[in-house]
Model the fold of this input.
Amino acid sequence: MRFVSFLAFCLSISASVSSASTTNFTASFQQFQQQFGKQYQETEWEHRLAIFTQNMQTIFSHNAGNHSFQMNVNQFSDLTPEEFKASYIQGFRRKREN
Done:
């Protein structure tokens, strides 16, 4: 059921966007918040919306090209690449030899 809801969400975004550079993503951001249970302090909401908008523009730009894969919204769509790397990419750490 969650997959069906997510798929409907993605299709509604795709259908409502004619041009990523001129589209207001506020409604899509609100749907994203609901879908992934995201809540923000009032002071952070605008900042996260701006990041989400930039990520949506990146997604639409990528998907307009001839690539072997498509990008889409996920639970990380409100993070900058730097925030994502700092929080989720730990990398390989060698064990120190003494």
Summary: Confidence is low (pLDDT under 50) at residues 14-22. The first helix runs from residue 2 to 16.
